[in-house]
Amino acid sequence: MPNQYSNSRSNRLQAIEEGKKTYIGSTACKHCGSYEKYVSSYGCYPCNYKKGVEKLLSGACDGYMTKEKWAENRERRREVIRENNKKYSRTERGKVVSAQKEAKRRALLKNQTPELTQEQVEQILTIYEECSRISAETGIPHEVDHIIPICRGGLHHPDNLQILTMEENRKKGGK
């Protein structure tokens, strides 16, 4: 038995070196009795070939990819990726947010921002700077919060802004 095994192994290695797909094995197939095997899977060549022909004749292979179908699918996948790239963008925090949702928020901010004097603009900037300073000093993240949320009709105005810890602000949400 060791001689047959080593002979089979050398047949397979030789077939690999020669770039062949099949080789002559040492054991017969239990279904058809053939010794011809695939180099890649050690499977019986005639049995697998027969199964493939049966699939072709039965029409089961009609759904297989042709070069044309492959190209169509590739283009369709690329189009889906393009659409998703338009639809989603990354925010500073790394979360994926709908670009449409971001645009709506920006529009709300614009619509909810009354005409501000230069002094009020400076007050808003001061509040944001103060928030950053507090976060840096305490090590606890803070956020500028709208007391009456913009989604509820509140204005982006210094009188409607307060500094809260991030945890408190997230709990509050749009309330």
Summarize the structure in short:
This protein is α+β, with helices and mostly antiparallel strands. It contains six helices and six strands; from the N terminus they run H-E-E-H-H-E-E-H-H-E-E-H.
Properties at a glance:
single chain; 175 residues; alpha+beta; two-stranded antiparallel ribbon; two-stranded antiparallel sheet; 6 helices; 6 strands; elongated
Textual characterization of the structure:
With 175 residues, this protein is an alpha+beta fold. It has three domains: 2-58, no CATH class; 84-113, no CATH class; 114-172, no CATH class. Helix content is 53%, strand content 13%. It contains six helices and six strands; from the N terminus they run H-E-E-H-H-E-E-H-H-E-E-H. The chain has helices spanning 2-18, 45-58, 67-87, 99-111, 118-138, 166-172; strands at residues 22-24, 36-38, 88-90, 96-98, 142-146, 161-165. The protein has a two-stranded antiparallel ribbon. Strands 3-4 form a two-stranded antiparallel ribbon. Strand 3 (88-90) and strand 4 form a beta hairpin. It starts with a helix and ends with a helix. 5% of the residues are buried. Residues 1-5 have low confidence and may be disordered.
Radius of gyration: 35 Å
Q: What's the total helix number?
A: 6
Residue stretches low in confidence (pLDDT < 50, at least 5 long) are 1-5
What value does the average pLDDT take?
79
Shape: elongated
Q: Quick one: biggest sheet?
A: 2 strands, antiparallel
Helix content: 40-55%
Strand proportion: 5-15%
| Order of helical and strand elements | HEEHHEEHHEEH
What's the number of extended β-strand segments?
6
Strand order of the largest sheet: 1-2
How many separate structural domains?
A: 3
Structural class based on helices, strands and sheet pairing: alpha+beta
Taking the alpha carbons of the first and last residues, their distance comes to 81 Å
